[in-house]
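Student: Hello, beginner here. Can you help me understand the protein record under this note? Any guidance would be welcome.
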Amino acid sequence: MNFKKVRLILFLLLSIPSYQVFSQEAKQKQKYVMVIHGGAGTILKSQMTPEKEKAYKAALALALETGFRRIKAGESSINAVEAAVRIMEDSPLFNAGKGAVFTNEGKNELDAAIMDGNTLMAGSVAGVTTIRNPVSAARAVMEKSEHVMMVGKGAEKFAGQAGLEIVDPKYFWTKDRWESLQKVKRQDSIKAMEGAGEKKSLKLGTENRDSKFGTVGAVALDKQGNLAAATSTGGMTNKKYGRVGDAPLIGIGTYANKLVGISCTGWGEFFIRNVVAHDVAALMEYKNKTVEEASSEVVMKKVPALGGDGGLIALDRDGNVAMPFNTAGMYRGTVTSDGKIEVFIYKE
């Protein structure tokens, strides 16, 4: 055989696997520009009607589309996460804004936070009852005050002065959340009659476990390479005494720097004890772990070790995404730089 033909055949044979590897790597290295979540918990397909599943997926997709439009237009990641979270706050499907759960007193108390990874500027509100979109109030605290966090009536007064929409507390009332409160109260009443001790409940953490879940969040990477994160929640069903969870606490439920952005969802007390969001960022910065490695170490090992559960979303400056959770499901979704949207609910 002609030597030139042999060399050509060998070249072609060697080129095929190289091309395949390149194609696979290119496929794996999609650049994500936004990731969102709508809460974690006992979310099972067997307990979901087709209609409700469709509604959740549509709401998640709308939030992603809304945020992506901001990024595509060259707007900041702060604009993108605020816009995406507002969509979920306006939906009765999620435990935030319109769909917030009720406290023991039958009120809706809302928390939210937002952070700019480029400047480390941050804002949050907690225990508010009349602000239609708490995430926008958190942004107002960040941009229009010298503070990071405001709570209760003071936060509401500030939000009104900042021009945000103030609503009657009745706006947040939904039948499903009200019935959930009554169910949890009945369970607590039965537990009390059976003589279950408070210490046992706190230790095991099994009673009314899903009443402790429910949050929405978004992380975005804009065209300038800046990251931002935002989180919003109605807190815990049947909560008492002005309880505040992890969502509005910077570095715990919400965090962003130049390396990564994180938004958490889960049993807030355990996320607070683990300083979850900042721990993920610290593992990446100081131990050179990938966003997936760092997120998994915290959510799959550290939080469960104390008895807690939940999940988080994280996006790094290179467009790599992580969405670990140790519950049955987590409402979540992503969009890539070319606009491809994917939404998920259950464990895949």
